[in-house]
Task: structure prediction
Amino acid sequence: MGGGAQDRIRFNVGGKIFETTSTTLANAGRDSFFGALFDDEWNLKSHNTGRDYFIDRNPTCFAVLLDLLRTGELCIPQNLPERLLYREADFYGLTDHVRAAKWGPFDGNRLNLSTSVSGRAPGDGTAIRGGPDGGCCVAHGSMVHVYDWMMEQHAPITLDYRTVYDVGWIDAESIVVGVGGGEGMGLFNATSGELRHRFQVSHKNLVTSFTSVALTFSNSDGRIFSSCRGRTNEYGIGVWDRVTGEQMDFFYEPDKWSFGEAGRLQWLDGTNCLLVATFPPRRDYCYISLLDFRVKKMVWSWSDIGNDRGGTPPVEGNRVRDAIALEENSSICVVSEDPKLGFIDLRSSGGFNFIRWSFRRTSLMQGKMPDHDEPCYPKLALHNGQLFFSMNDCISVFCGSDWVLTSRLRRSSGGPICDISIGGDRLFALHSEDNVFDVWETSPSRFSL
Result:
């Protein structure tokens, strides 16, 4: 494609004439509105009518989007509503281009606060989950509020007064919700809030009720995992096919251990194992396990009950409140309520004394302490080799093989952070006061095309 007369193309958009080149339009990609103007070799199709291409759309938005294709930069006039521009971008198939221009590839050390969104329901939120396209969902009480990448709220998901324990995104249009009261799990449309499928669990060929406590997904083979709390002998980890919704497996909880009350599940692609972690106050002690479903065996385990060398349980303040596996380092990161950040070597097993504490209270306590009696316990998140740790109203970022503290994120209001999540190249932080949540983004590079 060149830049001569044969390369030029004219549009009449809502009565206004625009002239550009096929080279510029090719930046929109094959799946865009403009991709249909090219043949398989990316040559502009013949246009013998002698007339302009007429498009009955908003010309002001078209000018902004055409400039985006030329420069890779998004410049929105002050008198142009962003919602209108995003609607037009969706029509032309340029939504991904607009998102890429608004925020860049995720980097925890270059995050800036983009916006804060106030919740629309009373009571403290329980979980926030970032979606694959930059949207998010917030669970509190018996409701899940869903926001698209523009932070516009969709129809809420209501669970008939059943407590929501966890939520997770299957894709940009589908959300799995785990609830209590024996209602189990459901798959919902993220836009309409409608129930698409209810997951069932069977024991000895009998369908039984269960509470879904924590969720995670395996993207490589399309499995859904949930910690399940049923009757006395029906605690464990259930596995479902995300396409058919059918139960694939169930890993029963062994004696004197804990699976069904697990508050953290994490699928590990490198080892094909599932991290299962249970924390107080659901149980008196912390239990962390690695499950290999290929052999139906718990291949690694750790607990703070005490170790085989006569260790004693941890004192109050040293209780582990969250854990996350670091596959590349062959370790598990844990955080206590004190707070302290530590690491357990996966190549060994043992009791509480085997935690290597790296960061203690004095280096981590930078945010304001909560004023109320219900503390928000520390939370962990991992993304592209960066570790995130929330405590009070502050998020710390750690990088490198030795997990060096590299930056901190904090806003001036909102209260303690009760949950964090990363999705769609955004970091979401849910605060306890009024269910307000923050959206952190990485500033885009000046030229992204």
About this structure: The radius of gyration is 25 Å. Helices lie at 22-26, 59-71, 82-92, 95-102, 361-364. Confidence is low (pLDDT under 50) at residues 307-311, 369-373. The chain is about 10% helix and 40% strand.
